[in-house]
């Protein structure tokens, strides 16, 4: 079975939707954008040696935080997914993780808006 990052994201979003309701609701267009990003993550995960994929919602800012942990990162013009994911992120950070791995951290805008 092929890995689907959006499946993981959906589980996290469902939990966040329950916690944020009834004051906030997800904006379908923003969720659709995140789904497109997940398609790029899936390609990146297939092409790179990714050890873990983690998704969290920042409770204060309501941003979507996605982390990838891998041994190395390879980027080329024939593999534009990483650059596209970085461009769409509010912030991006690379950190050393456990001495052997790299942790790529992406922060994407909130998917929720205040209900009327």
Map the helices and strands.
Layout: H1 5-20, E1 24-26, H2 28-47, E2 50-57, E3 64-70, H3 81-88, E4 91-97, E5 101-108, E6 112-114
Antiparallel strand pairs: 1-6, 2-3, 3-5, 4-5
Helix pairs in contact: 2-3
How does this structure look, described?
By secondary structure, the chain is of the alpha+beta class. It has one domain (5-111): Heat Shock Protein 90, CATH 3.30.565. It is built from three helices and six strands, in the order αβαββαβββ. It has helices spanning 5-20, 28-47, 81-88; strands at residues 24-26, 50-57, 64-70, 91-97, 101-108, 112-114. The strands form two sheets. The chain has a four-stranded antiparallel sheet with strand order 2-3-5-4. Strands 1-6 form a two-stranded antiparallel ribbon. The longest helix has 20 residues, at 28-47. The protein is elongated and about 45 Å long. The relative contact order is 0.21.
Can you describe this structure in just a few lines?
The protein has 116 residues and is of the alpha+beta class. The protein is built from three helices and six strands.
Number of domains: 1
Q: What oligomeric state do the depicted chains represent?
A: single chain
Helix/strand structural class: alpha+beta
Terminal-residue CA separation: 41 Å
Order of helices and strands: HEHEEHEEE
Which tags fit this structure?
single chain; 116 residues; alpha+beta; Heat Shock Protein 90; four-stranded antiparallel β-sheet; two-stranded antiparallel sheet; 3 helices; 6 strands; elongated
């Amino acid at each position: 079975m092929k890995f689907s990052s959006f499946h993981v994201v959906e589980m996290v979003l469902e939990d966040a939707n329950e916690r944020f309701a009834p004051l906030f609701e997800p904006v379908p267009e923003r969720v659709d954008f995140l789904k497109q990003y997940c398609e790029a993550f899936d390609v990146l995960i297939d092409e790179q040696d990714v050890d873990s994929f983690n998704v969290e919602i920042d409770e204060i800012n309501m941003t979507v935080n996605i982390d990838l942990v891998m041994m190395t990162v390879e980027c080329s013009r024939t593999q534009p997914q990483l650059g596209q994911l970085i461009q769409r992120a509010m912030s991006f950070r690379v950190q050393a993780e456990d001495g052997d791995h790299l942790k790529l951290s992406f922060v994407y805008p909130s998917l929720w808006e205040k209900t009327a």
